[in-house]
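Practice problem: predict the structure.
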Amino acid sequence: MLCGRVGIYIAVFCIFISADTSTCSHFADNNGFELVSEFKEATQSSNHGPGVADRAVDGGRNGNYFAHSCTHTAGGLNNPWWYVDLGASTVVSKIVIYNRDECCGERLTGAVVSVGNDKTSPFTGNTQCGPTVTQTMTYRRPIIMRCNPPIAGQYVSVYLHGSEPLSLCEVEVYKDISNPVLKCPEDIVVSASLNQSIIPVTWSNPTVMDNIDSGLMAICTPASGSLFEIGFTKVNCSATDVSENAGHCSFVVNVADDEEPTLECPQHIIVNNSVDQSEKPVTWKEPTVTDNVHIGMSASCTPASGSVFDVGSTIVTCSATDGASNEGSCSFVVHVEGQEFPSYLDEEEPVILCPANILVNSGVDQSSNPVTWSEPTVTDNVITGLSATCTPESGSVFDVGSTIVTCSATDGAGNEGSCLFVVHVTGQINTAAKIHSGNKTDNSGYLIAVVILGVMLLVLTSTFVIVCRYYKRMCIRDRDKHQYSFIAFDVVEFYPSISMNLLNDALDFASRHDNITEEEREIIFPY
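Answer:
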């Protein structure tokens, strides 16, 4: 039968009546290939009967030479050949040969199929497509030659070495028209780095699949690792196979701006209201606004600068929104005096300045001394007129020695500040004064006290020597009656300002100079 290009009905008819369905397969199965040889100009080395060269490109796949469907060169001639002119250089991917099937198919054994721009036998300038035809291959129908990689050329030739005639029933030349298939990454969403408006973004290279070529690589623009600005950027990727078929895919890189603008508000503002005024207009320098992307932004404050503020505390809130709808804000307080500053905003302690360390000289006949000083000064960030409380307080009586005075003050928010200083009344070493004040120590009071004590000790010693010599025998004789005890009391009565310690020192002196024993000493001074 003849299966030509007569329409779909003939094609279906062939499927049902022919045992070899491949004779009509080219109508339905291109699989991404385009037939480029049909009805093109063909030439062969010689002709035998009706088997001219065009029979191999007339669209008929019938394998019966006697049905006028096959070519045939003259017998007895060496190295027959056949070629088709595609009209222009074409990238050939596949060549399908339909051999004779009624007989003589083995004659095609040893044939070489090639593609190139050389149309001169034996076509040595062309590139062979597929393997050399073997005898086993001649029993197949069709014989498929795959050009891997595809070959570019204007001429497709079949060359048979030897003396057998060359017979071809159909030669179909295909070029690859199937684009590579690319699979791009999913859309990418990344957040911009802090204080940055551009960041590098990387991704895995798209996968590329092709019906013929393998190992194809996609090229993306912008390339992976490029710097992307904040916003949406389309990335286009493509890959081209050897047949110059290009596949494409794309995805979007979204660099998101998640960073809020930064606002710097003024410090809290405190103003004094006039006596006859119940509200106060207040102005301030507008907050500064910085953003990782946008410049020249300004803040909007509520209430606005220049508004009239009632007596009391008002919170002012300022905000700014960038192009990505990120909003930043800050706030401060305008306080018009007339009521207490809100304690939840005041975290600063009062500052107290104490007097310097104080040194006073105690009188000879005085064991304690009242001391006064100027009250410490108190300053606070909110409240004025605070006063400090000192312990001990000014005007207290201080014993001889060093005493630490602590002064403190508390503001309306409960923040407490304190300071301290030393009051030193002469009579002991002013250690604290040396440490805290750094002033030189006044030793004149010590010198006076030493002189007075020395004179008193000399008088007391002389008196006891005289008394003890006079009473010595009677004292020794009557010691069991404790007659010595009255001497001590008489002396103390006579010198009421002399302490018992001084009296004891005098007895020590008398013992050394008049041989008073310990027993006699206990009788004179039993305490």
